[in-house]
Amino acid sequence: MKLFGLSVVTLLATIGSVVADKQLENRQLFRTVDLSKSYVREFIAVNVYNDGTSDETDYIVSIPPGFVDDLAKLDIKESSHEAPLKVIRLARDEHGEHWSAILPEPIKPGSQVQLQLFLSYVNQLQPVPQTIKQSEQQHLVYDGLKTFYSLYPTKSQTNRVKIMAQNMQEINMDENSTPSTEAEGGAQYGPFGPMGSFEVEPLVLRYDYPLPIPRVDSLKRDIWISHVSNSIAIEESYNLTNAGAKLDGSFSRTDFFAHHGKPSSASASIIELPFTLPLGAHDVYYTDLVGNVSTSHFRGGKEVSLLELRPRYPVFGGWNYNFTIGWEMPLTSVSRTTGADEYVVGLPLLNGPVDAQYRQIESNYILPEGAENVQVVTSEPALSKEESVTFSYLDKKGRPTIQVRHVNFVDQHRGGIVFLKYTLPGSAATIKPIFIATVIGSIFLAIFSLSQLDFTISQRPKKTTKE
């Protein structure tokens, strides 16, 4: 099996050689685990020192074995560069999954560089208890790590946990656990060190979380690109679930209004979904399984458009809500010409509600009929890409369609982008308008021709008999 031109055996050997040589060392590391959203975010600032005798061109990040399938986002930056570093997935072994960040400049022996790591995980938070009454408060449990999981030895590290509320309890403490110190909006652990490769300390926290946990189990996006009407029509169908604590008993509207605004199951229900739509969005609509929903508000601004939705009912923990939104936008606002009959269209990778996580996303990019040499580039690695043909009104050959699938997305991916590059000959762009004009002209000609014919049935004159 080959990955990026190297065999898995070679990659694992490379990882093993780094551990054996121990050229790189995490000299000083600060880690923050942010539990203030519906998913887990980690921020790590680390000074990486080269304690060896040769240059190091990359830094390897290891994801713990129990966290690999829940990884949603990984960005790495070097302090002197604004753009994220190129990250390549290497391989998976008994130590987890390993990623290589290509450094802009090699780390020379005896020198160091400061890196910033941004990680996001889904499915890491569980409600405990799993069912609560409508008047009770929701609690979540984070089952993670108290220290940073690294392939390299760490000389010193300090870890901080950030939460929304003040009530937090560590439920796995024993006599060997490192105690925490109070910090604003959470707790602080450490400093730890020195620690060896893959040496960690577990952490299980129980804390109050008075907000819902929006989880999109499946999202289907259809993006229609039309050069004839100079527009892009986008439709998104959501299968939404509140992954918080399930409601124990039946819903009481009286109790809902009585406890609304207070930490309870009511405050942890989904009552509103704000969407940020692209600039120039218009003809916005919002429907669900019942039909059109009028409880929505759309505001189009100079820089951004905001769509605020209100479901027909408060979505409590364990409840589902399926709905569809759609809008149109000018094609010229997101496209440009790069050559003769060659176009590039840039679109947002995700247009979803704030503070949400996604299990599966299917995006269908439907290009104009006659488009050729189609290329799709996404800012985030895709699980799969498939080509097909979609037929619409008055199509002869069909429209080229690219289906792109992603998994484990969070609302942070809304800053991502997808580029569509294709060639559309001038004849292909004008054939449909000419065909439509020909059909309409033929209809009018047929009507005019029929109007010139005389279909009157005249009555024969009666014969007169001579006497």
Description:
Component of the oligosaccharyltransferase (OST) complex. Keywords: Endoplasmic reticulum, Membrane, Signal, Transmembrane, Transmembrane helix. This is Dolichyl-diphosphooligosaccharide--protein glycosyltransferase subunit 1. InterPro entries: Ribophorin_I. With 467 residues, the chain is mainly β. The chain has 2 domains: 22-206, tricorn interacting facor f3 domain (Immunoglobulin-like, Sandwich); 213-421, tricorn interacting facor f3 domain (Immunoglobulin-like, Sandwich), CATH 2.60.40. The protein contains 3 helices and 32 strands. The protein starts with a strand and ends in a 16-residue tail after the last helix. Mean pLDDT is 85; it is low at 1-21.
Alpha carbon gyration radius: 30 Å
What's the pLDDT, averaged over the residues? 85
Helix content: 10-25%
Helix count from the secondary structure assignment: 3
Please count the beta strands (DSSP E, at least 2 residues each). 32
Spatial arrangement of strands, main beta sheet: 6-9-4-3-13-16-15
Looking at CATH, the homologous superfamily of the largest domain is: tricorn interacting facor f3 domain
- What is the count of distinct domains? 2
Approximate strand percentage: over 45%
Shape: flat
| Low-confidence regions | 1-21
- Terminal CA distance: 113 Å
Oligomer: single chain
Shape-level CATH architecture of the largest domain:
Sandwich
CATH class descriptor of the largest domain: Mainly Beta
Annotated CATH topology of the largest domain: Immunoglobulin-like
Which structural class should the secondary elements be placed in? Answer: mainly beta
The major beta sheet can be summarized as: 7 strands, mixed
